[in-house]
Amino acid sequence: VQLQASGGGMVQAGGSLRLSCTASGRTGTRYAMAWFRQAPGKEREFVGGVSYTGGSAYYTESLKGRFTVSKDKSKNTSYLQMDSLKPEDTAVYYCAAGTRGYTDNLGLYDYWGQGTQVTVSS
Fold first, then answer.
1. Is 67 exposed, middle or buried (0-12, 13-18, 19+ CB in 10 A)?
2. Are 35 and 69 in contact (CB under 8 A)?
3. In 3-state terms, what secondary structure has residue 93?
4. Distance, CA of 7 to CA of 64 (rounded, Å)
5. Which of 25, 32, 63, 99 could share a disulfide with 67, CB 3.0–4.6 Å?
6. Distance separating alpha carbons of residues 31 and 62, to the nearest angstrom
7. In whole angstroms, what is the distance from residue 86 CA to residue 16 CA?
8. How far apart are CA 59 and CA 3, in angstroms?
9. How far apart are CA 56 and CA 121, in angstroms?
């Protein structure tokens, strides 16, 4: 399975961005998808995840309400809608896919996208 993330860029504080992650290859398997981010000098952290069907989502508590993860199963694509962005949201954002649910444990994901840079200016 290959994951292709897109949609990153530069935005002013208070703005919005939507990231996309499209899976190709063995997409017949029931994969949950998730988003992580990594700021310079920091560890990669969980942002949010969505179930295989797209019917359930789970977020890291501090981002709940500003970030929304969704999935279009027919397109094998997950989305990360980011609103009210803050400079501290600046990071490289990665999508991941795995068969063990939308866990916040990055070690349980089988596939990773290449990352897309999000920069929020003040």
1. buried
2. yes
3. strand
4. 20
5. 63
6. 25
7. 10
8. 20
9. 32
What tens digit of pLDDT does each residue of 57-87 get? 999 999 999 999 999 989 999 999 999 999 9
State how far the Cα of 25 lies from the Cα of 7, in Å rounded to an integer. 21
Tokens, residue 40 = 């310079």
Q: How far apart are CA 46 and CA 50, in angstroms?
A: 12
78, amino acid identity: S
When pLDDT is averaged across residues 3-18 and rounded to a whole number, the result is 97
Polymer length of the chain? 122
The strand pairing partners of 77, in sequence order, are 22, 72
